[in-house]
Every structure is written in structure tokens, then in C-alpha cells.
Amino acid sequence: MKIVIAVFAAVLFAGTTTVYAQTCPLNGTSSNKLVCLIPQVYGPYGFGYGPGQPTEQTVLYTGDGHAAHFDSDFLTTFAPINTAVGIQVSQLPFASPSSAVSFTYNSQLKTFEPSSDESLGPILGERASTSGRHRLFVAFTYQQFTFTSIDGQDLHGLPTVLQHFPFPPPFSNPQIVSCPNQTGLTGQYAANPCFVRDYIQTANDITLNVHQYTAYVTFGITQHLDFSAAIPIENVRMSVTSSATIVPNSVTPPLLAPSNVWHQFNPQNTQIASQCAAAAAANQACLHAAFSDAGSASGIGDVFLRGKYTVHQWERAGVAVGVDVRLPTGDALNFLGSGAVGVKPFGVFSYRARITPHALVGYEINGSSTLAGSNIVPLPGGATPVSKASLPNRLVYVVGADVRVTKRLTGAFDIYGQRLFSAPQLVAQSYTDLGKCADLNCTNYTTGSTHPDLASRSADISINDASVGLKLRLLQRLVATGNVLIKIDDGGLRSRAVPLVGLSYGF
After folding, report:
1. Domain layout of the chain by residue ranges
2. How confident is the model at residue 381 (pLDDT cuts 50, 70, 90)?
3. Domain 34-506 falls in which CATH fold?
4. Under 8 Å between Cβ of 158 and 166
5. pTM: predicted TM-score of the whole model, two decimal places
6. Cα dist. 207→139, 150, 193, 255, 293 in Å?
7. pLDDT of residue 451
8. What is the distance between the alpha carbons of residues 482 and 93, in angstroms, rounded to a whole number?
9. What end-to-end distance do the CA atoms of the chain give, in Å?
10. Is the dihedral of CA 59, 64, 66, 70 positive or negative?
11. Phi first, then psi: what are they for 269, rounded to 5°?
């Protein structure tokens, strides 16, 4: 979003620098890195070459047999998918590492014991109190993310258009001349041949699922200071399919019969050979083809470390400050991690009662990552090292309340929000083609029509979810958690609902 998108310039643009690297060797071979799925399907070498046969051009220009050049800004357009997946999959919301069980001092027994008159605490939110001196809290949660949209665009129905590159004179082939009717051919398309009016319309389907298993441990150093660690283990599954159609808006000279088109998909390409066979059997050009790629990865994600200090504790209210540190322990090119260090100082306020309101505000500063860097697809003639760029910084805010329904049951509600600054974003737009010619000289001309398309831009993105859940005390110190995270708006890479289940124990 990266996806994504990759996942996620020619393949991954988060800035304006163009540097190339060998991360995705799109030269007829393939990479098993998830970040390469989109470029292997859509890239200049994905659309341009068949697997294992780097000399076979997918889009064939039948005028003299060389590859047709269609606008590779498709990859620039889809950069937010890879970037969003890389950024957001590595920073998925997880449960609070605060202990569900608080302890009170029993003066008669001269010891601390689990409190029975307080709630079991928030699920995604945070409270000001710490675990307590030398208290240990451990927990385990499972979350399932099924991503369905990015920036309001349906991941299973992403339309985009590949436009032909400008083809200015002089022309080496005598069969190629400037289009006699230059209507619609202005600017960089002035004096171009009629065949630049051809374009490729694609319908794209991206499936992305993440299963996140997280272990937590919190230890109280003093009565007011504790340290926590969250260690996620993730399984990421992604597939990409593009159904592409070449729209022939130009008419060819008789020498190109029986194909009668300037551009078609190359039936010798191994990935689409069977798809083009049906068209060949009907003595037609291969104008329709589907391209796909899929992969999965499992492993440790980015580890989070937290320190929290209770600044002041009144009888019922409390204020705490802390800092989260994200370590780049996950494989960023498989969307298991961000590839960058993140530091998030935060502040917490909570009020202890049967209804316990709480609020957290933090600001995360991120380091540089290849996911936000420049192109990872090599161009002919060599490559330079992978460049990096800073991941978007973000404001994180959580506000809500947990309610003690009974001594054993607590309900929790939170609004979990993020504001990403200068992040890549997908936006819908319309593409107007250059018009259709009904004859070789384009004497009969039809004005271009509009088609759905996508573009990318840098923007501040808000991501807001509602969290609703329950905590149940199974034993004195053993607590079960169930929660669902429901999207409120459409910013970023989103799931409609994210279930969470977990167990925790306080020592």
C-alpha cells in the first residue's frame, strides 16, 4: 500500500530518486520475495519478458517485430501498494502489554494480591499504572488480517491504463509515418504515428492475508517503572492477477494481415502461450491475456520494546510516559518487517473506576528502509546498490474505556487512530484515450473516451478503527481476551474487521 502491494520510480517509488538494484532480478528469472510479486507481473520486464526466456517480448509491435513501449508509470501508480504493505503490515495494531490483573496490598497477609474491584484493563489501549515491582506478565494473542482495500480502492478490482510511449519522428521504417489526422495528438504526441493511440486496459486483483501471532512479556522494575517486549510471528500470503486487454485504436496497413493490429501479446511467451492459442485458432490477434504471481512468507516480525513510567498516581487517576522502540528484525522484502528502526515516545492518562477511561498519544519517528526507497528493478547495463528513504512518521492516538461488568468480566472499547505524514496514496482518476481511427489514414476519427485509472501521490493519511472486546478472568490470574477491530474510514491498507483472541497470566 507496501500491499502491497507489494507491494510496492519503475517499481517502488516513495520519492523522486531513480536508483536500481538487483532485489527483483526481472530478467527472465523470478524472485521469491513478496516485494517482487507486483513488478514480476506488471514491470517492464514482467510485462516485457516471458519466464525463462528473456528475449521474448510480451507486448509485440507487429510493424517490425520489436517490443511495444507502453507507459511503465503503471509501476509508479502502484508504488503505494508495496509501500503501504511494507509500512502497515510491519506496524499492525496489537494488544496492550499491560497486565490485565492489578495487585493491591493486603495489610493482614502483608502481601500483594490480585485486585477484585477493578476492571481487567484495556485491550488495545493503555493505562497509566504499571505491573508493579517485580511483577511479571506474559501473554499470547492471535490476529487475522484480510486486507480488502487500499485508500478506499477495492484490492480485488483495481483498474489502470498503460499508455503507449510517445513515438516521435524520424522513423527508420518506411511503413511508419506520422498520423495523417493529428486530432488529439498534441504535446509529446505531436507528429506521432496513429498506433500511439493504442493502449492497454488492465483489471487487477490483489489478495493479501496476514496471520499474526504475538508473544508479550512485561516486568516491573519498580512500582512505577516496567519494561515490555512484543515479539510477533507472522505468516503473509499474497497473490496478484492482472487481466489485460490491448485496445487497438489504430488501423494497420495491408502488409500486417492477417493480424491487422500494430500491437498484440506475444503467443511465444510461455506464461501466456495457452491463452493466445485460442485466438490463433480463430485467426485473431492475441489482444487478451492474464498475468499472475503468488507467494507466501513466514517468520519473526519487527520486535517492539517498551519502557513505561508512572509519573504521578492519584487515588484514582494516573499519568504515565513511555517510549516504544521498533527493531527491524523482520524480513522487509517479504513484508515481515519495516526494514527500519522506529521510536515512539507517548503519554498515557487513565482513571480507575468501574468505568475506566483511558487515552494514549504518541508520535513515531521512523528511519530509512528499502521499502520506501527507489526502484528495486534493474535496468539493462548493470545496477547500483539499493537506496533507502525514510518511512512516513506517524501520530498514534488511542482513546476509550474499559468497564467492569462483573468481577470476572470486563468490556473494552477503543478508537485506535493513526495519522501518517507524507505517505504514498492511491487515488482514482480517469484516463481519456487519444481517439480511435476507423481507417488507415484516420480520416474517420472518433474522439477519445474516458476509462477508470489510478494515480499515486504523497499525502497525509488518517487511519481509524473501532476496537470492541471482552476480557474474562478464567482463574485468579489467568485472563482470556476476545476482540474485533472494525474499520471506520478508508485511509491506508485496510481490513473490514480484524479478530483477536488471546490469553494472559500475571505472576
Report:
1. 34-506
2. very low
3. Porin (2.40.160)
4. no
5. 0.84
6. 30, 12, 39, 43, 11
7. 95
8. 14
9. 41
10. negative
11. -70, 125
